[in-house]
Amino acid sequence: MTLILWGHAFAALLFGMIAVSQLRDAATALPRLTFVVALIATALWALAVAGIDPRDIMARIAESGRNLAWLAFMFALVRRDPSAPHGKAVATVYGVVVLIVLAGIVLAIAETTLAPADAVSMSSSRLLLRMMVAVSALVLVHHLYAAVAPRARGGILLVVIALAVMWSLDLALYATAYLTQSWGVELVALRGAVMALLAPLFALAVLRNGDWTLKLSRTVAWQSLSLAATILWLVTMVLITSGIAAFGGTYVRIAQTAFVFGSAAATLTLVSSPWLKAWAKVKLAKHLFNHRYDYRAEWARFTDTLGKPEGAAPLDERIVKAVADLTDSPAGLLLVPDGAGLGIGAAWNWARDGLPASGGDEILARHLVASGRIIELDRIRSDVGLDAEASAEAASVPQWMLDDGATWALIPLVHLDRLQGAILLARPPIDRALDWEDFDLLRIAGRQAASYLAEARAQEALADAERFDEFNRRFAFILHDIKNLVSQLTLVARNAERHADNPDFRADMVATLQDSAGRMNDLLARLSQHHSARAEELRPVELMPLVERVAARRRAQHPVAVIGVKALAQADPTRLEQLLGHLLQNAIEASPAVEPVTIAVSVDAANVVIDVIDQGCGMSPAFLRDKLFKPFASSKPGGFGIGAFEARQLAQAMGGSVEVTSREGEGTRFRVILSSARALPMEHAA
Length: 686
Known about the structure:
The protein is of the alpha+beta class. Helix content is about 60%, strand content about 15%. It has 22 helices and 13 strands. The chain has helices at about 1-20, 30-50, 55-80, 85-110, 115-145, 155-180, 185-205, 220-245, 250-270, 275-285, 295-305, 315-325, 360-370, 375-380, 390-395, 400-405, 435-500, 505-525, 545-555, 575-590, 620-625, 645-655; strands at about 330-340, 340-350, 360, 375, 405-415, 420-425, 540, 560-565, 565-570, 595-605, 605-615, 655-665, 665-680. The chain is elongated.
């Protein structure tokens, strides 16, 4: 008892001295005034514990006064910023904690009037309330530190530490008393000594108070309200179970157990109800917050829904969900441009049974583009107080939307004065009229959603254009090959008139026709939309037989000589034949009828070289530099300008290259360079 006396007396002296030193400046600001009051209340409480007894009614009331004073000081700090957006929510939390403190005072007074048997049960309830006060105060201390402006946390840090230690000691003391059903004298003595040590921290905090402006977030306010509701529920449970214990008679335990389980089940059912959540959100936003929406959080959720990675729901469905979530609408329907009107598009939680084939006619589409206004369907249904503009709006809405009572609002999606669609929202769980905040948020969200839709459709159009471009490019190559085949067939038809009776010619003609038919079928397959460019299947290819086959097809058209060595190249034989066919055909068309075209095969280190040489008209340096390897540029009358371009692409696909040297009036040499598979012994051929 001596330690309790001297510890609390010394604490009372220190707190009293700090309070007296601050009396002169107490009226300069509300936080300083409440700070001085809290110092005085703490000194009086410590004096009551030292002079009377910590279990005496006056000491208990003094402790409650101390708690109320420090809560008032913390609340004054919270309210220091008059522009704080959630002051009402925070005030509600503090109010609930104050009610718990006052309930503890009432129980302490009531305990003195009860018989000893009933006082024991009341004492347990009072200890529970004091533990709740300590826990709630610790949570509010953490909230105070989290909400204060970062630049001011250094000034408030000492106060936060001191208050946290003070209420932590209270919690430890009352929890021990509740569990052991005995008063911890050692903890009481320790609390007095620690309070004396905390007094200098409060004194230093006065010198370092700085700017204690708070910046509260809506999330903190909602968490605080949830905490307040939880504490209020627990207090109610404690009071009712205490009442059952006092008046329950023989079956008190059964009655308490039934009440706890029944109330817990009922509470969980209510809390899990979507309607209750929506109702609480609407009411709290209406009465506690300056704005209905936390715009930063809503926009972050909106963009996160729209930007989900591949594999999630389709973009159209995500857009509907993102807009519906803003107003807690349970479903939404996307109307998309369909001719001059609107068609039914993607749906989110919207049953498609019974939907019309058309979402709206041309009148609705024109109205949405012209006005850009969100259509509130309940206002049109009421048909009360509609001006001329609203009457025109009502006339544009299709009847099926008005007949369906679940429809609530129609949001146009306009991007760069073009209607990308419209979103029809279902009625939220708590029916209400749209206000200016709803219109502003939905209008901005509609523009953002419209930009996403416009971008997605532009990408689809670009993909279609790329497919058409690929088709056109493939068709241009094939058309060039067909031109070469036509040249061969024309020559065969011309020679057939003179050599039709020659069996060798007939056999050669049949082979040429079969080869041409096979190549045409291959060209048609390449033109098919299901054909995709395959990776080149490279393998060792013996070049001399392949070159001879290519030359043999053209010898009836023009003299072709093959010289060189036996060599193996790493290539795709089909593509290599196609490549050499392009170059040989170009050389034949550029050469005089009496001048042969030469194909020469050679080996150069790790490469195999195939030269296609003609003695034709040649090409100018400007044509070589600017036009030769560009599609649709040709120096020949009636040429397509595709052969050299496709030849280089084929060579590059096989890991090789095409080089060219040419001089006007002297001829041209095309050189195809491929990787060597294995060089064979030199052997010249005519």
